[in-house]
Amino acid sequence: MNGLVFILCxxxxxxxxxxxxxxxxxxxxxxQSDSSFEQELSELRRRNEEFSARITPVVSRNNQxxxxxxxxxxxxxxxxxxxxxxxxxxxxxxxxxxxMVLYRRLGNYDDEIRVIRSAxxxxxxxxxxxxxxxxxxxxxxxxKGKV
Length: 147
What we know:
mainly alpha
């Protein structure tokens, strides 16, 4: 759990660092007044607050889902992960990956296939992940046919 939170924090910090470097790079291209820099800094803070507001509930639900899984409360874990993908907060693949695993374990191949197809749409530009999803989809379809 702590590792996931650490990774997400690193991603957030690196994204903010990139924005900051972009702002500083823009500043070096032309001479700007202090008030202009303050406006850019204010914009950076606003973006950071927006990002934090978006990511905090997602991370919280992912962490709750992990805890529910550890305690054996799979139905509650599924609710947490499903809420993250329904709300369209595509910050991490974690809820998709966990739902695929949990639905496979439960033999709920229809929902597993639904989640796989959803992930394929969202992450269509990640060819390595799409390759893994295609393999998983084929396996789920085969298992579904055996039921």
